[in-house]
Amino acid sequence: MMRANQKQRRGAAPNLARFFTKQLLLFMALAFLIVVVDFFLYALIAYRESNEHYNDGTPVTTVRAVDAALSRDEGGAWIFAPKGLETLAEQDAWALLVDGDGNVAWSHGVPTEVPRVFTPNDIAMAAHYADLAGYPTFFWNRDDGLLVVGFPKGEYWHESLTFPTSTITNLPLYVLLIFSVDLAILFVMYVVSRRRTQNAVGPIAEALDALSEGRAAELHLKGDLRDIGQQITETSGIIEQKDAARANWIRGISHDIRTPLSMILGYADAIASSEATSDEARASAQVIRAQGLKIKDLVTDLNTASKLDYDLQPLHLERVHLPRLLRTVVAGHVNSGLDELHPLELDVAEDAAEAVVLGDERLLTRAVENAIANARVHNETGCTVAVSLHVADGHALVRVADDGAGATPEELAALEARLARARTARSAAGSYGEEHGLGLVLVDRIARVHDGALKLESKPNYGFTVELSLPLV
After folding, report:
1. Which of 98, 114, 232, 347 is the most exposed place for a label (fewest CB within 10 A)?
2. C-alpha atoms less than 13 angstroms from C-alpha of 317 in its C-beta half-sphere
3. What is the predicted pLDDT for the residue at 383?
4. d(CA 262, CA 124)
5. Which segments cross the bilayer (predicted)?
6. How many CA atoms lie within 13 A of 308 on its CB side?
7. What DSSP letter does each residue of 204-259 carry, written as one string?
8. Count of domains in the chain?
């Protein structure tokens, strides 16, 4: 578990940087999407404009309609079909026909300011600029002359553009070059932004890891993240002060309880062992002593949990011979002779006779004692408690099973949910007060600091089993 936590902490900064990288990639994808959408919008607008101005009713179609409607009869008179009249009326346009001598041979609705005689130069200039007397004009060559169709002033804008053939030929290459340069710029932005993001969020991720582990965090960031660094530093100071106050409070309360509790236990022992004590008083003294021992265990659990929470009790790792440890714990309970309702049994499998783990013997002893105490507390009418040791898959399995009332599936699920909450909480001591007290929460935490695990099994009326799994050495 400790090694897993270290790997998780090492991966926190890259994960945070990866998050910001994804945001940057999302931004770039959106920028690219905007370009694509703009292209399709351009195509859509071009299609709309083409339909509206370059199909029916456009200058080209109008000129062609007028040309088709204009003809001469056998006598040489000009005939202008109704279709041509309708087309010019729809566009508010006018038309004239210039013969080979430059004279207007035919006209319809021509403004007065438009000349009636044209020189070749006038025709050339009007055709080049598409303008005649300020009117946008369009030309169509016929066998009998030059057809000129004019539109209202300001209706059309004309621009004459001339490009070399090589420019038009190379246009796709130029577009590809521009697109490639844009992609290169986006890639450079991505690389630079990713590096800056990693450099910026790395210290923040480490500081947050430190806070989650109860260690002090101090950040001195620059630029836009300076305020965040100051807030994390201030938060670290506040958390450190609260943790220190809490740890001091638990130690102080524990110290204050020990002295009167020792006196209570001492007087209870004296009353229970006195020959002058009546049977009723002796039974009451035994109850007082039993409840006093529960309080003593609770105080010990609170102290142990507090020290584990705030790293006040570093692990004193050594090679622990589990069979010897279990025999010591069981012998201590049996020799006390104070709990006849909960007899203890010990079974060490042959393959576990030399089982050794690397751990803190004092904490492991506490874990086994808490598992035994859990069986006694929840079976006040009595039960047999069997302590066993087995080996499987490179782990030592310490099982404390009773044949008492057990727990319903709902109760077992609630207990496992509470243990899961305690694993994500920073403080095990803060978990006290829920059902089943602090005992199993502390057993679970002790197992995890030894890279082990806790497993619970139970059925109603078939007892309750606590299994502690520890890696062998």
Report:
1. 347
2. 6
3. 93
4. 122
5. 24-45, 171-192
6. 27
7. HHHHHHHHHTT--------GGGHHHHHHHHHHHHHHHHHHHHHHHHHHHHHHHHHH
8. 4
Nearest to 311 by CA among 237, 247, 357: 247
d(CA 63, CA 67): 6
- What integer pLDDT is reported at residue 458 of this predicted model? 93
Note whether 244 and 284 are same-domain residues: yes
What type of residue is 378?
H
The DSSP symbol for 408 reads -
**Residue 311 identity (one-letter amino acid):** D
Burial, 133: exposed, middle or buried (Cβ in 10 Å; 0-12, 13-18, 19+)?
Answer: middle
What pLDDT shows up at residue 321? 96
Contact 455, 467 (CB under 8 A): yes
pLDDT digits (tens, 9 = 90+) for 242-271: 766 666 666 666 666 777 877 887 888 788
Q: Determine the 3-state secondary structure of 355 from DSSP.
A: coil
Instruction: Give me the residue label for tokens 């300011």.
Output: 113
Is 350 inside any structural domain?
yes
Instruction: Evaluate whether residue 158 is within a structural domain.
Output: no
User: What's the average model confidence in pLDDT over 152-176?
Assistant: 84
The mean pLDDT value for 301-330 works out to: 76
- Both tokens of 253, joined, read 């309360």
In angstroms, rounded to a whole number, what is the distance separating the alpha carbons of residues 266 and 274? 12
